Structures
1.
Amino acid sequence: MIDPALAQLRAIGDDFVLPFQLEASGLRGRFVRLDSAAERILGRHDYPDRAAVLLGEAIALTATLSATVKFSGKFTLQAQSQGQGAAVRTLVADVDTGGHLRGYVNYDADAIADLPRDASLARTFGGGYLAFTVERDDSEGRYQGIVALEGETLADSVHHYFRQSEQIPTALRLACGRDLDGRWRAAAILLQRVPASGGEPMAGSAADAPRPDPETWHEDDGYMRAIALLATLAQDELLAATDPPERLLYQLFHEDGVRIWEPTRLLGDCACAPNKFHDLLARLPRSEVEDCKVDGLVSVTCEFCGKTEHFDDTALAAIFEADGPD
């Protein structure tokens, strides 16, 4: 009889978060692969490859980190430049508890074209910060973690965050690229030594849980072994659709023993609310909305999915009539 987790993984397809644990070392992990979801998110925009790869890594990272937190609501990752003339100004990705994943990147086309091939993340953004936000629908409120955009890659900044802010030993690999058919794919593997109390990383609920001093992480044999094994994983192996995820995990960590748990489906959908643009305009002063008219129309575009709606005088009157004249 097939394992229930494997049966569900097969039913989900190629867009998933797969939780797992290394039995010998006790490390917890998340494995994310994005096939159709990555293609939908990246393919709907004409991004230059450098911007698309960065966004692909960000959406895979967002799906991975969100799966370490128990919440009902939305998890958001935002990288924001604070420098002048930055090649990439803003990078945003979010996912809700329904698995709806989306993202966009705002960039300077000339500046990003001039970047050298080996440009670091810090140079790409010209400085700035990386923020992780958990917005809960229930009464537990909002949690946010922020770290400077440092290091060569997005993964480097995440490592820095967990080392300095959460003090949770973390190993991370991110990948994004095109397959032989030119379709975008993205993937991530995260391993963590979760606090002994059972508290979750990034949830803000385990502040009193004992955490190892980062200066002692090298003494954790299981953690150091996991880092070494992840370093042997090539990008094309991480992205390969032909290699079942449980086989890849076994090839990497078979000496520790790998146990997988129930996977979660991911969808590359923006999930725009039906009245999203209507409600957005209704929150603004009518005079400001009128100033945005071009050829008699106010046009609003969703940065995530590219959806655009146009509002003429009749539509605007319907929006603002309840509030009376501005």
2.
Amino acid sequence: MTEITYNFKPVTHCDMCGADASNFKILGHRLNRTQGKNPGKVSGISTTIKECVSCGLIFSDPQPVPANLQDHYGIPPAEYWNDDYFKANPESIKAVVEKARNYGGPDGKILDIGIGVGFAMKGMLEAGLNVTGIEPSEPFLNYAVSKIGIPKDRIVQSSIEDAQFPDNYFDYINFGAVLEHLYSPSTAIARALKWVKKGGKIEIEIPNAQWLMSKIFNLYYRLTMQPFVSNISPMHAPFHLYEFTLDSFLRNGKLNNYKLIHHHYFVAPTYLNSLLDKPLQYLMQKTGKGMQLIVVLEKQ
């Protein structure tokens, strides 16, 4: 296990709805490694996982902040994701392009925040869209340039917190699997809202706090008398700090002056045997308990 030094920052209010700590409840503990069936029998450092009862946001309290952010995101992509991540999904790329064209317009200015290895951005460029990317990780940026073929001058190497763009400049902003990594999602949304034009759209994909599989895993931990939960992974890859609900964005919209105009859920395979996989996917589809939540925000 790689040695990482952390500072631990107490959480005094919900980042998405502003509720104070009296509205938090403890869900359990999360190790700084994958946990398996018996996390109580493995060595590791744990942090407490809480839920805001006002909006359903799930987070770590205290928040583990690495002394150097590159300890989390400066690792090579192959060490961060499994092999499937490096296989382009034509249907997924097509969906990204269609949404960018729909929300941004054929001649609109588009910002892709957190391009990763760059499949989605490459698809938008090949479709003739005017897209700029942000990527804070140098290894990921280099992969996007050298392996995927994205022009380097189209990518800004920066965190969203440090990036600089004109106000009211973009027609559409895409947050793909980014917000859950940021220490203040609400601040990042507010920053993106400054860059997008009035009436412009921001699409965000994030982990669903109501994911059925997490609830099943957590029930197993409770039944086996283990004080752990499967939610988020603040101290190991993929370093998720938050899980969100639809209500998180409805309440945050009142703070940041946006309107939630669309949402849907991505179910994803359960990786269980076929007798369980299909029924559970069907149940997740019907109940809104898929793995990912996708929301579209409109600047007011």
3.
Amino acid sequence: MKRLILSIASMALIAISAASITSCSDNDNGIYSTLYPNALVTVKPVNGNSFYMQLDDNITLKPVNMTTPPYGNREVRALLNFNYVKEDASPYNRAVWVNWIDSILTKPAIPITELQPSVEYGDDAVEIVRDWVTIAEDGYLTLRFRTLWGLRGRPHSVNLATGVNAEEPYEVEFFHDANGDTPTHYGDALVAFRLDGLPDTEGKIVKLKLKWKSFSGYRWAEFDYCTGEATAAPSNDILKMRPAIDVE
């Protein structure tokens, strides 16, 4: 089972910048701060020797200052700080200068029948944070979540299960295992799950229903979802939690 490690720098930047994200423009002239992420993208390698980035369902980005795929042959979700540049973007939509890029833990959603008993994949409480990076797009469900961590930073494990409701094929459940970590403080982390195991929506927008165990019991949220495309942010039943404290 893959382990989750809290990305301190990334989450600190997200906490600071979440309320101020704006679209880049050709007139930025380097004024836009390079400290904070201004995009969430899918990094897509091409033939092992180049890559492009999917910004949303309509826009692909060509990095003019990078050629080698930063994560090898792995397709991953990532936080990005970039500027548009006036250079040839073919065969993609826009050319960009990458100031920095930071990958997010990216893993497949798993059919519930392939998971071990709940005692092994975890039933520790977690909150899903309503935020610009909590979104269903490009065939992924990306989540910013908040939970209790220990001072020693023991790795936590997370999974997303499909097939949890025979009558609702687009219902999924988030599981969190603190692996015995002694809780001392709240902190945030990011994870992205590939949804290619879900039935194809055939171009239609459906409701993707997310279930998780929160600190106040089980909760649900709905996302607009279309196979392989960017859709809307989650519904308002995800409550914005207080800012993360003492993130390590």
4.
Amino acid sequence: MNQENLNMVMDVKVQLSVKLGSCFLPMKELMELTPGTVLQLKQQATDPVGLYVNDKLVAYGEVVVVEDNFGIKVTEIVTLDTSDS
């Protein structure tokens, strides 16, 4: 990709999301969820979180607090597989 083509996409917005953890839950328990229910995730509190761009994992990081907001401190960049493009 030449520099001109690369410059064209630099302002394109992408969806950035963070996956804190996950768990499996029987449908019966899902239907019984109420405000205040606590779900235990498979991940440990010290495990890195996944940073995704358009649902593709690109990095890992740790949760930090910036003023009154959550943030992510990037600790590892995932090598992107370009063979499927």
